Amino acid sequence: MKVLVHIDDAEQWRDALAERLPEAEVFTSSAPAGQRREADYLAVWKPSAELLGEPERLKGIVNLGAGVDALLNNPGLPKNVPIVKLRDAGMAELIGDYVRYGILHFQRDFDRYRRQQARRDWHEHAVVDKADWPVGVLGLGAIGARVAAMVAADGFPVHGWSRSPKSLDGITCHHGDEGLDELLGQVRSLVLLLPDTSATRHIIDEDALAQLPEGASLINPGRGTLIDEAALLDALGPDREGEGDTGSRLRGALLDAFPQEPLPDESPLWSHPRVWITPHMAGPTPLGEALDQVAEALRAFEASEALDTVDPEAGY
Ligand code: GLV
């Protein structure tokens, strides 16, 4: 089989994949056009439309990330070619740490202490028990389910939400529109791990934010399109360092993903005192586990084995 790899550091991926698949011919997108046309499989992250259109007898695509939104929205994506994506592949553990940091940031009042520091204000806040700090996780796919379990293991009550019913040990699971309202009404930190689809776009809008308890916090290591930014800014309140903790319904937001990345210079989020920005770093893909999954998927494609493929209609 002939496999074309396209991602940052493609040479490193190519060499490591070739080691795992000695039977395959593995090359990158800088190979000559004739070789690219002959690729049986693409293993890609954010390829150009042109590259997607080049192979003449494409049998399958492996998305080298968990989110398939960029691929499914690519105008060059050939029809009816099965797609598999990375599932967890070590990302969930890293995203789980990011989320745990975010929850503790608010639960242990680091946001308030930073504001106090600016005015040399030395006073301590009583710690809210973890048991009284319910956390909501929207999205219970491979990553969301693992993150929910990590947060629950830390001692926080965890509510999970998915479009269709799920049942997970130690997690209070909700589903559907009603389930979303139930969850939003009771969580002090809300974590977004949904895919970007037409059904999830702006799922966190004015209405959703209004349902959160006063002083809730938002943590988004998922996709930027899940949040209506105007509604978020409104819920966060004035863009100035307040004297105290009043004046905002939403206590703060830790954001890793944005509709446009890099986040544009002119975005008001950059300088908002209740917003913490990270540059889409919550879940980098660890090479080793990802490559094992890619090799396994390519072997299964070749052997015509049943694969857990992406549903382009659902968008994940
Ligand atoms: C990163 O955002 C991914 O989807 O893997």
Architecture overview:
The protein has 316 residues and is of the alpha/beta class. The protein has two domains: 2-89 and 285-302, Rossmann fold, CATH 3.40.50; 91-277, NAD(P)-binding Rossmann-like Domain (Rossmann fold, 3-Layer(aba) Sandwich), CATH 3.40.50.720. 32% of the residues lie in helices and 16% in strands. The strands form two sheets. The protein has a seven-stranded parallel β-sheet with strand order 8-7-6-9-10-11-12, sandwiched between helices. The chain has a five-stranded parallel β-sheet with strand order 2-1-3-4-5, covered by helices on one side. Helix 1 (10-20) crosses helix 11 (287-302) and helix 5 packs across helix 7. The longest helix has 17 residues, at 91-107. The protein is elongated and about 65 Å long.
Low-confidence residue ranges: none
Shape: elongated
Helix coverage percent:
25-40%
Indicate how many domains the architecture comprises: 2
Q: Mind telling me the CATH class of the largest domain?
A: Alpha Beta
Q: What small molecules accompany the polymer chains?
A: glyoxylic acid
| Total count of strands | 12
The biggest beta sheet reads:
7 strands, parallel
Spatial strand arrangement across the major sheet: 8-7-6-9-10-11-12
Class derived from helix and strand content = alpha/beta
What is the CATH architecture annotation of the largest domain? Answer: 3-Layer(aba) Sandwich
Give average pLDDT, whole number.
96
What is Rg?
21 Å
H-E string: EHEHEHEHEHHEHEEHEHEHEEH
